[in-house]
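Example (one chain per record):
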Amino acid sequence: MKKLIIFDLDGTLLDTIADLAGATNHALATYGYPIHETDAYRFFVGNGINKLFERALPETERNETNIMKIRSVFIPYYNKHNADLSLPYAGITHALETLQAKGCQLAVASNKYQEATTKLITQYFPTLSFVRIFGQREGVPAKPDPAVVFEIMQAAGVSPQDTAYIGDSGVDMQTGINAGTETIGVSWGFRPRTELEAYHPAFIADTPEELLSFLGN
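Predicted structure:
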């Protein structure tokens, strides 16, 4: 069993897509831009919120000024509504509790901004202890840059060989590859299984129970 297991957040631990879509649509509508169906956001998220806004804006409106306008409305709205519809995936809390009980160190590395990452993890997993809960922070490059994973491994005192990185997207698979950890995909998240398969992860779990079984070997 790995000594350190690092999880992505959105699409891996929590199903947050409805709240992300609602907040982005609110910000878009505030400035008169077209809004999108919730499912469309599965392909907008994953690279941080500025990239989310860029993808959600009309092609001709994708510039830094408009991205920051959307951000200025999105953040206060999302801070109030980021737990309206979001929920842990069925079975994931049990999996985390089991891993921790077996002596694994747990951590979170997300491209969601830090304030929301901390709030959601502490709200939905209050009984768990995480080595680090990291979202997008000023001065730290977003995934798939491995900087955040290196920082967590250093804090945990664990080598890449004793670490697993788990996520639901190609960004996550590339993050694990870049960090030199075992890389595991989960198919219950926002992106299709084929996106994960393209990176040849060590394993793709279809349920948290399968994930637990693989990690326990």
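Caption: The longest strand covers residues 105-113.
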